Amino acid sequence: MSISVIGAGKWGQALQFALSKKNSVTISSRTPREIKNFVTLEKALKSEYLIITIPAQQIASWLENNFKYSGQKILVAAKGIDAKDGRFLNEIYAKFLPTESTCFLSGPSFAVEVKNSLPGAVVINGVDKNLCNEFAEFFPSFLKTYISSDVIGAEISGAYKNVIAIAAGICDGLELGNNARAALLSRGLIEMQRFGASYGAKMDTFLGLSGAGDLFLTASSTLSRNYRVGLGLSKNRTIEDILEELGEVAEGIGTTNALKKIANEKKIYLPIAAEVYEILNGKSVQQSLKDLLNS
Questions:
Q1: Within this chain, do residues 128 and 175 fall inside the same structural domain, yes or no?
Q2: Which positions are annotated as active-site residues?
Q3: Nearest to 114 by CA among 15, 210, 6
Q4: How far apart (Å, rounded) are the C-alpha atoms in residues 190 and 269?
Q5: Residue-wise pLDDT tens for the chain (295 aa)?
Q6: Last residue of a domain, one of 89, 116, 149
């Protein structure tokens, strides 16, 4: 048995650390890193089990240029929707390997806390329950794992919560108070469910770790990149300046663009996502607040 993490950012390194508690795990990325057990991409891709953390906006191109299926089993550990064409990650990966060979990781899990061995819980989602259980066995005792077959529900939850987290950052940055925050997150959860219903997702998914759990975490802490994007927008900073300071990908931005496109095509009412989209494209946060209260 061989296991490799593809993507050596903070999340990739955190997963390598966690999985190494019970297994020998190598890690690789586009650029060499001074990390224990770092190997070339060519060598990593020969592993039987791959944990891929490459961001949603980059994965289609990466798979096209780097991946050749030879029986690998993959755990997708990224969240988002392709902004170019609105494809979910499961749709992107399905072009390159069988759906039965792919699982998707979801649930509340900040990289820094995983790397500090703090307790938490995650969900492994897939159509093959046996494969989900195989991946679950790799995780350390401080991370409790659950199994689910609702891949699309987990994907929508993981992507959508980043958009709501941007809105939550704006809310807190404007110092609107706890009442406003509670209203925003409650409405955000309902909005996620509404969107998920149009794809046949299970409603229970949105009330569990993948949905509410991940939403409450990501929309309430400066450890969240998307929340910090919202804080910056509340101070009328440009998105370019915010991202330069972050130095990391904030998946909620690309996902917001994807949601706007899908909502227009499928006629889905997504007021919070729509206002986040408008703010990212220059609308004032104060005007968006007024419009959201009246929507």
A1: no
A2: 161
A3: 15
A4: 11
A5: 799 999 999 999 999 999 999 999 999 998 899 999 999 999 999 999 999 999 999 999 999 999 999 999 999 999 999 999 999 999 999 999 999 999 999 999 999 999 999 999 999 999 999 999 999 999 999 999 999 999 999 999 999 999 999 999 999 999 999 999 999 999 999 999 999 999 999 999 999 999 999 999 999 999 999 999 999 999 999 999 999 999 888 999 999 999 999 999 999 999 999 999 999 999 999 899 888 877 7
A6: 149
